[in-house]
Amino acid sequence: MATARVDLDRIVYLTELTGMRVEGPNGQRIGWVREAAVTPREHPRRVSRYLLGGGKTRFMVSHDQIASISLDCIRLASDRFVPYYPDQNLLLLSEDLLDQQIVDVNGRKVVRVNDVALRVVNTNGHDELWVYEVGVGLQSAFRRLFEGVLPSGTLRKMQQKIKPNSIPWEFCNIVEPDPQRRLRLLISHHRLGQLHPADLADIVEELPPASREALFETLDDKVAAEALAEIEPKIQVSILKSLDKERAADILDQMPPDSAADVLQELTDEAGEEILRDMEHLPAAEVEELLEYEEDTAGGLMNTQFIALREDATVRDALEALRGNEDFLRNLTHLFLIDEDERLVAAAPIGRLLIAREEDPLRSLAFRETPRVGDEDDLDHVIEMFDKYNLYTLPVVDEDDKLSGVITADDVISALRPQPARD
């Protein structure tokens, strides 16, 4: 069984590796390193191939042909070489990483790669290089600028005066637009899918268009829907246009009706209707109804996902309703009581369920007064109601006082936030 020992004091930077002298088993000069590559299917970190050059000749050696690695020379254990041919299974460290934008999952941001730090690992008596971290700060930029101009030893001493900024390899997410190559390189965005939708949206907005679309193609429908709802309208349109209509419909299907309506409103009528026809789970009539409202009205702000119970319901009924609507719980603060004609009677805070008995009438937990707005009321009136009554949720009723939807505090915050200029 192979054993690996990491030498904590031996770091080789990619900018030092490219151009490094290569010697054969007897010390004869072979050439120099032009490129290093990782083969993710074999090992996620280990440099598996070294592209060497001498004059116009280009050939390749495997990691198991390396005897030793120092800061200025690679010594080979074997002089068996094979010609180099481009291979989609290889992640080329210089070509695919240097100057490229990648996602720092831990820092929740997009960064540009200046250099790559490789750690020397001794495996069963021979040296290997494993990718350790990616340099994105001033120190790596300084090293990149003066590599080849100053001796490596001098450069290393000078860089110590500059604060390093790097990302461990396990927190780096590469965005590869080509789906076939993405598959070959085993590129996964599982870690991105664990971020808060707002953080993921910020990352998407920082990426160039091709990378945004590539990232969205790898996210599951639920994660993609949550992120899309947080993205600026102009970018939403760009992403949806890049996806096939069925995939776009699957993503919008996972959104609350009001968010789906907001996104569809940004598309042309024809494109929006085509996507709406392909949506299977979200009721089309519900979304179409929301599209009828002006954006700056209560109807345009409201969400139609709420829980309404009859006015004679008990706490037990309320708990059963909550168990049947887990998808609503993220933004749910109140349960609403309606009469037999579906007119709004009262609102009961969910928090009060914790101190009530199951047989208690839900009506006994409700506030004496239930502020509400009409579906045609304007944004200013909605804001005034939230401010006056310190609300988290505001019910919206039609002209007959029937409950149509609810507006939450985050809907108001989004409406108040300055919107980017549109073309």
Query: How much of the polypeptide forms β-strand, as a percent range?
Result: 25-35%
| Helix content estimate | 25-40%
Low-pLDDT residue spans: 1-8
What is the approximate shape?
elongated
Sheet with the most strands? 8 strands, mixed
Nearest-integer average pLDDT: 89
Span between termini: 62 Å
Query: Total strand count, please?
Result: 21
Radius of gyration: 29 Å
SS-based class? alpha+beta
Count of runs of 4 or more consecutive helical residues: 17
What does it look like?
It is a single chain. This protein has helices at residues 14-17, 93-97, 138-146, 152-159, 179-184, 197-206, 209-218, 221-228, 233-242, 245-253, 257-266, 269-278, 284-291, 298-301, 315-323, 379-389, 409-416; strands spanning 4-13, 21-23, 29-38, 47-54, 57-62, 66-69, 73-76, 82-83, 91-92, 101-104, 109-112, 115-123, 126-135, 166-168, 172-174, 308-310, 334-338, 344-349, 373-374, 393-397, 403-408. By secondary structure, the chain is of the alpha+beta class. The strands form five sheets. Strands 2, 3, 4, 5, 6, 7, 8 and 9 form an eight-stranded mixed β-sheet that branches. A four-stranded antiparallel β-sheet has the order 1-12-13-14. Helix 8 crosses helix 10. The protein is elongated, with a radius of gyration of 29 Å. The model is unreliable at 1-8 (pLDDT under 50).
Topology:
Blueprint: E1 4-13, H1 14-17, E2 21-23, E3 29-38, E4 47-54, E5 57-62, E6 66-69, E7 73-76, E8 82-83, E9 91-92, H2 93-97, E10 101-104, E11 109-112, E12 115-123, E13 126-135, H3 138-146, H4 152-159, E14 166-168, E15 172-174, H5 179-184, H6 197-206, H7 209-218, H8 221-228, H9 233-242, H10 245-253, H11 257-266, H12 269-278, H13 284-291, H14 298-301, E16 308-310, H15 315-323, E17 334-338, E18 344-349, E19 373-374, H16 379-389, E20 393-397, E21 403-408, H17 409-416
Parallel strand pairs: 2-7, 16-17, 19-20
Antiparallel strand pairs: 1-12, 2-3, 3-4, 3-9, 4-5, 5-8, 6-7, 10-11, 10-15, 12-13, 13-14, 17-18, 20-21
Helix pairs in contact: 6-8, 8-10, 10-12, 11-13
